Amino acid sequence: MPTFDVFRLAQWRAICVVLAAVVLAGCQSVPKGLSAPQIAVLQAHGFQPGDAGWELDMSTKMLFASDESTLSVASREAVMRVGKALAEVGIARLRVDGHTDSAGSDAYNDALSLRRAEVVAQVLVEHAGFLPDAIAVRGLGKRVPASNNRSASGRAENRRVSIVVANQ
């Protein structure tokens, strides 16, 4: 009949306990990125998580007229509300992507979409306290449609901006 070495068994048990403690300590470290209150604010304002971060596609809240880069009063107020809420929870860096429908040349749509993004960024700076260099703006033209461009309503949904909070 085999005999057990009680001392050796106690050593192995101690080693296993130490290894388990190290592994569990790694699981309890504070995660990098956005805090729970920041994520709650993003969700409350309609941001959706994606590959690039949390994105608010304002196609339902902030549309532009065809060939326009001017915000309506309602759209301006929506940008101010979102911007102030983000600033209040310490989100200080954003990206604003402008978009267009498919009408017009690529070069024209790229310039128009950039103007749309710049208009939204300016509202965030003037009314929500963001620093100008903390907002990246991009004009994506017609390259990332939110809807089909074959109908008037689809084209209208594509004349929009998206606000992105990058994964930090």
TrEMBL record:
Coiled coil: none annotated. It is found in: Cell outer membrane. Its main location: membrane. The keyword RNA-binding does not apply. Keywords: Membrane. GO terms for cellular component: cell outer membrane. PROSITE patterns: OMPA_2 (PS51123). Residues 52-168 form the OmpA-like domain. CDD domains: OmpA_C-like (cd07185). This is Integral membrane protein YfiB.
